[in-house]
Design goal:
Length: 218
């Protein structure tokens, strides 16, 4: 087996940020991007080539064998990111945890594979962050928080101590979740909202205090 290659999946805005995390962390074995958009093929993004699409990457992963290709997930949509991760695992690729050197993470926190931790993020003691999560710029994950798989905590959002955020949920820009509140799966919290009480699965909540505005079909 040859040397490991690192690929960023997604060559648009979020993928650029993930690449920047890897570069800031001193990662040297980055081969480039993959992207499923036809308009992205053959381009260079921030000096790195778009090598192919997801089918190309799956073939490369099968040829490379276990450990040969590691993928940093640069896809913003939670459900799409999950589907891509499952396809990559079936092909034998591994998912890379990308942590910006200017993030602060407690030694007792646990963060899953395929997660992106951006600059300015704070993850405090005993927090548990699942796989494929986006912890976006300057968000705060306080002590004893649980963030479910393939969730997205947006820039400057704050999760108070003991908060639980379910799988695939999205906490909007600058939103605040008060300590001990439980957010269900597939929930969308609007930008700037303050969540003061538990929220069930598959709803949208906005405002201060946050109120449910609609239910989602999942």
């Amino acid at each position: 087996m040859g040397e490991r290659k690192i690929i960023v999946y997604g060559a648009s805005g979020h993928g650029k940020v993930v690449l920047d995390i890897l570069l800031a962390a001193g990662t040297t074995d980055i081969a480039g991007f993959v992207d499923d958009g036809a308009d992205q093929q053959g381009r260079a993004v921030l000096g790195f080539p778009v090598l192919g699409d997801g089918a190309w990457l799956a073939d490369e992963a099968r040829r490379a064998g276990p450990g040969g290709i590691a993928v940093a997930l640069g896809i913003g949509n939670n459900m799409v990111r999950h589907g891509i991760a499952e396809n990559l695992r079936r092909a034998g690729a591994s998912l890379l945890l990308a942590v910006h050197p200017r993030a602060t993470m407690s030694a007792s926190a646990r963060v899953g594979d395929g997660t992106a931790v951006m600059a300015g993020v704070v993850i405090n003691p005993s927090a548990i962050v699942g796989e494929g999560v986006i912890l976006n710029t300057c968000c705060v994950v306080e002590h004893d928080v649980v963030v479910g798989h393939f969730a997205h905590i947006s820039p400057n959002a704050t999760l108070g101590g003991g908060v639980h955020v379910g799988d695939f949920s999205h906490v909007g820009l600058g939103a605040s979740i008060l300590p001990g509140v439980r957010i269900g799966a597939h929930v969308i919290i609007g930008a700037g909202a303050t969540v003061t009480k538990d929220l069930e699965d598959a709803i949208v909540a906005v405002g201060v205090p946050a109120r449910v505005t609609r239910r989602l079909a999942i």
